[in-house]
């Protein structure tokens, strides 16, 4: 379909010119959008305001695309079937539907509405300025000025010096000193909220850092400002990140730009002094996780090692513990039969749920791994992890049996296997024989414990030359905090299964580092402006700004 689009231009001195254009299509769209066939540059016109079609030659169908409708021949309608001569008004434009020429299927004419038509047709001229009325600008201005000065300046200022007036104004619906506040204080500052001088040592001025340090001098910094000479560290005001009067929970900035402004190009900003990798968004730009492995030097001093969390990384705890055996769905053998274990049987959250309590042998392991040592006394067990006490207890146990008589061990001398009457005296030769056998028996049983199916089940055991502690057990060193530079709360993840993050059922060795990597966390967490199907996670969700290994802010020069 060929449309004739004619634009009428009125020039000075009443001259009129025409500009014709041809539009091909079944629909003639009208609006302020650049993609419309009839482009009308008027803010009163919607981006897509109307549609005009021609079902037959000389007939037109007009439809409004907005709820307000169209003005057609002076009436507001949403759709209409019209003929030639119909006038459509849109903003400051007039669109007239015309009878098409022989070469066209439809035609429209667009022109600007004349100013004389837009003027009021009322015969009475309305006042055009305040001077043409009986009102003046000066008197109302002075009344408003005096009222505002009295209510919002003089009354609050007077209440500062008159406590009784302050209490009266706060109880009455009148402005008090609270009217000067920029907003509600943070909940941590409510207890001194009426003492403005606590933070604003200088009236009508920004809070200074020294005012903050009066209470927060012990707060630790973020990084050494002498080593990292950055304006954001050495010269940044406390109020750059902590702005009060933003409601109970608005004191701390949590947006990602707080961290990403510096950490996006950390090496470049610090001149290569920082060994940390750049990061700006958890979902898009974040380095691999780094964990703290427990390590000790040759002198036994704790020297933790930070390393990247990669596949095949070993813990080196000194403990032998196969997770897959203990998490067998068929259960494990115990004193009372088969028992099916779960992660929660050994990994118990701390109060509050942030971390996990230490593994305890006596309450979590000894029920199945009993430390009994003599078949004739199945309820007697040696203490765990105290080698000297173990041999002292064994010496004491077998010495008492030997001295009291009736030793049931076939390898014991015949004189010791004879039952004695209570109170019967023991000859010196027999006493020496009993103690010698008891000491040898204790060493024999101790060797069986340390090299048999007791200690070696979970530990590495080495012989020594000491008579008091003839065996040495490799120390077990379990890490309590893997991510030293981050925070993680198990309590907020209690809706997840342990195996969603820790692949324990497939682990054959306790040296396997069963920690989730970044790909695992990204299944649920995205950056601050991440995908809609994941949790928006800004930097402060896992990291803190004030680090405990940095000097306090009050110690800065």
Folded structure, characterized:
20% of the residues lie in helices and 16% in strands. With 557 residues, it is an alpha+beta fold. Helix 2 crosses helix 3 and helix 10 runs antiparallel to helix 11. The longest helix has 24 residues. Among the domains are: 113 residues, Tumour Suppressor Smad4 (Sandwich), CATH 2.60.200.20; 87 residues, no CATH class. It has a seven-stranded mixed beta sheet with strand order 2-1-12-11-10-7-8, with no helix packed on it. It contains twelve helices and 20 strands. The two termini are 82 Å apart. A hairpin with a 5-residue loop joins strand 1 and strand 2.
What name does CATH use for the topology of the domain at 2-114? Answer: Tumour Suppressor Smad4
Mean pLDDT: 87
Query: How would you write the strand order of the largest sheet?
Result: 2-1-12-11-10-7-8
Class from helix and strand fractions: alpha+beta
Query: In what range is the share of β-strand residues?
Result: 15-25%
Uncertain spans, ≥5 residues at pLDDT below 50?
none
Specify Rg, calculated over alpha carbons: 44 Å
Largest beta-sheet details: 7 strands, mixed
**DSSP E strands, number:** 20
- Which geometry do the CA atoms define? elongated
**Quick one: CATH class of the domain at 2-114?**
Mainly Beta
Q: What is the helix content?
A: 10-25%
Instruction: Name the quaternary structure.
Output: single chain
Tally the helices: what do you get?
12
CATH architecture call of the domain at 2-114:
Sandwich
Euclidean distance between termini CA atoms: 82 Å
